[in-house]
Specification:
With 175 residues, this protein is of the alpha/beta class. The chain contains 5 helices and 6 strands. Strands 1, 2, 3, 4, 5 and 6 form a 6-stranded parallel beta sheet that branches. The longest helix is centred in the last third of the chain and has 15 residues. Bound molecules: flavin mononucleotide. The site of flavin mononucleotide has 16 residues, from helix 1.
């Protein structure tokens, strides 16, 4: 039997990012029969240009589309910047509109930020526009994220750990 695949994307490019560390936390609880990858090329996606969105889009875009196409589920884990979705994440999502890459794909959305509710709401709208299958029980808004981690990037807040495990298990149930 083919292994199931979960593809995860952090909306933060920052070294030591809390969102990246959340994705690493999840990697530790992946069942043996699931392949889990953390995307590390978000910074290489060029600015969205509908004029370049033809049969030969930029290479990094094709790679991202292929990785998502091959995945059985996707996790998006992101902070909020200036009351909105980080530009690099929104930019990547814009490249996915015409290719229908996320249509019906089970998606878990985790917004981990100081507050985060604006980016969270905005992303839910965008994922709706992309016809993604956002799994209600795998949606999580984590405010005050920095206070819930230690300096090594481990999630230390017990309720947050439990919520993450729950959301992850609910996504796994879709595979
Ligand atoms: C330029 C900038 C703008 C920010 N604006 C917001 C904001 O509007 N809302 C919010 O909840 N957090 C905001 N933050 C705080 C981030 O949520 C916080 O730094 C978070 O830890 C970033 O995620 P990361 O640790 O994964 O990089 C902002 C941070 C930066 C650097």
């Amino acid at each position: 039997m083919m292994k199931k695949t979960i593809f995860s994307i952090s909306g933060s490019l920052r070294s030591g990012s809390s969102n990246h560390n959340i994705l690493k936390f999840l990697s530790a609880i992946v069942p043996a029969d699931v392949t889990y990858t953390i995307y590390n090329n978000l910074g290489q996606i060029p600015p969205f240009d509908p004029g370049l969105d033809d049969e030969t889009p930029p290479e990094a875009v094709t790679e991202l589309r292929n990785l998502i196409n091959q995945a059985d589920a996707v996790i998006i884990c992101t902070p909020e910047y200036a009351f909105g979705v980080p530009g690099q994440l929104k930019n990547a999502l814009d490249w996915l509109v015409s290719s229908s890459t996320l249509v019906d794909k089970p998606v878990s959305l985790i917004t981990a930020s100081s507050v985060g509710n604006n980016a969270h709401a905005s992303l839910l709208l965008t994922l709706g526009a992309l016809s993604a299958n956002v799994i209600e029980e795998a949606i999580l808004l984590i405010p005050f994220i920095r206070a819930k981690m230690d300096t090594e990037g481990n999630v230390t807040d017990k309720p947050t750990k439990e919520s993450l495990e729950n959301a992850f298990n609910n996504l796994l149930a879709q595979l």
